[in-house]
Amino acid sequence: MVDLPENADRGVPEKPAPEVASMYGLTPKVEAAIRDCFASQQWRRLRMLMDPLHPADKADLLERISIDEIQILVSQYGNEFDPEILPYLDEDVREDVVEMLEPDVLAASLPELDSDDVVTIAEELEPEELDDALAALPARDRVLVEQSLSYPEDSAGRLMQREMVVVPPFWTVGQTIDYLRSTELDNDDFYLIMVTDTAGHPVGEVRLNKLLCAQRPRRISEIMDTDIRSLPVTMDQEEVALLFRRYGMVTTGVVDNEGRLAGIITLDDIIDVIDEEAEEDLMALAGVSDASIRTSVLETLRGRTPWLFVNLLTAIAASIVIGFFENTIEKIVALAVLMPIVASMGGNAGTQTITVAVRAIAMREFSPKLAVTFGLRELYVGVINGVLFAGVTALLSYIWFGQADIALLLAVAMFINLIVAALFGTLIPLLLVKSGVDPAVASSVFITTITDVIGFLVFLGLAALYLL
């Protein structure tokens, strides 16, 4: 028999014990306890520790443990596996988990998820798995998911969810509130009520706070906001994220090719898009394509080797320039010691400029006027840095080798290369965008090649002209 708390008969909720409160969420203490359960094979205690966690915390744990431990965890839960975990998982881990789940478990899980999460999972399935998963959905949900999958990848149509509240403009506030209370919406999160005409075209929207503050007899058409920004289903998700950021949106409607309301996009999905796009740009700048700590050796090689090959070609180009001055380097050994400094400083300065330019392009902040302003600013910065580091490197060179003429040539080469880095760091991303090439992918390769070649050419060329 279980003893009830003393205040249970009065309907007062029992306060959680301090130990339980401190264990809420995936704290280091909880994670350590879960790892101990894996080591000691205490599966019942593992379930006790896992069950109170939020699906996001469970997903976080799955991303931290090994593939074998994930397999154990999935098998321990069996038919009771929480489907809400799947949307929070990293794509690579989610693929592994989906493969581990029994087909009937996965099929039973999908109807419990929001439609946008079902689409996210469905687009990663193999054709046979997708057919089985869709077959398990109710007929209406199956049609909606198939329709979403027909839209372009990374589009608003793939991103939107179909769960939404839609009312006609002639309803009263009272009718709308009664409708909300009479339908099964208690498990759905919504902040906006869409208003459509008889053909399904959006004509306005009403936020919940405005609805609840209005008098019951008032018409929805009187309180709705008609200045709405409905997005087309084909709009790229990066453009959608930009609009959400620019206008401070929380949620907005999505319309199909005929202008009918097809779904809504909410802020939580946009946060995922922003993270995904930022990660893609970061990976592209580093030349590692799409990779994670769980990517296989073959996939990692496939993503990195082409870029290393491109870098090899650019390094050969720089080496050819050095080869032109082989005799000069043989006679003045100090040049071989100092010339990497010029190239390295130019490459780093160019990368700094390119990083700012690529971000501005991604945020749609560049206009012709701003591009000129940005270019002039970077040129001024290049001149100032050129003077500063020309003096520093000349002084270090003179202290090192005691030759004023070499120090002077190093200063001139440093000054010129930093200005070149500023100019091309601005021009390269803009020219790549005009050519239809992603500047995040190719900019670093071009700037490194240009600053290496110019740096070596100026430094060694001046040495050949004035020192020999």
List the keywords.
single chain; three-stranded mixed sheet; 3 domains; MgtE N-terminal fold; disordered N terminus; 6 strands; Tetracycline Repressor, domain 2; CBS-domain; mainly alpha; 468 residues
Helix content: 55-70%
Average pLDDT reading: 83
> Would you tell me which CATH topology of the largest domain applies?
Tetracycline Repressor, domain 2
User: How many helical elements?
Assistant: 22
Shape: elongated
The fourth-level CATH homologous superfamily of the largest domain is SLC41 divalent cation transporters, integral membrane domain
- Total number of β-strand segments? 6
Question: How does this structure look, described?
Answer:
The protein is mostly helical. It folds into three domains: 17-159, Alpha Horseshoe (MgtE N-terminal fold), CATH 1.25.60; 165-267, CBS-domain (Roll), CATH 3.10.580.10; 297-466, Tetracycline Repressor, domain 2, CATH 1.10.357.20. 65% of the residues lie in helices and 6% in strands. The chain contains 22 helices and six strands. The strands form two sheets. Strands 1-2-3 form a three-stranded mixed β-sheet. A three-stranded mixed β-sheet has the order 4-5-6. The termini are far apart.
Summarize the SSE layout with pairings:
Layout: H1 18-23, H2 28-40, H3 43-50, H4 55-64, H5 67-77, H6 91-100, H7 103-109, H8 115-122, H9 127-136, H10 139-149, H11 156-159, E1 165-167, H12 173-182, E2 192-196, E3 202-207, H13 208-213, H14 220-223, E4 231-232, H15 237-247, E5 251-255, E6 261-266, H16 267-286, H17 297-324, H18 326-331, H19 334-362, H20 368-401, H21 404-434, H22 439-466
Parallel strand pairs: 1-2, 4-5
Antiparallel strand pairs: 2-3, 5-6
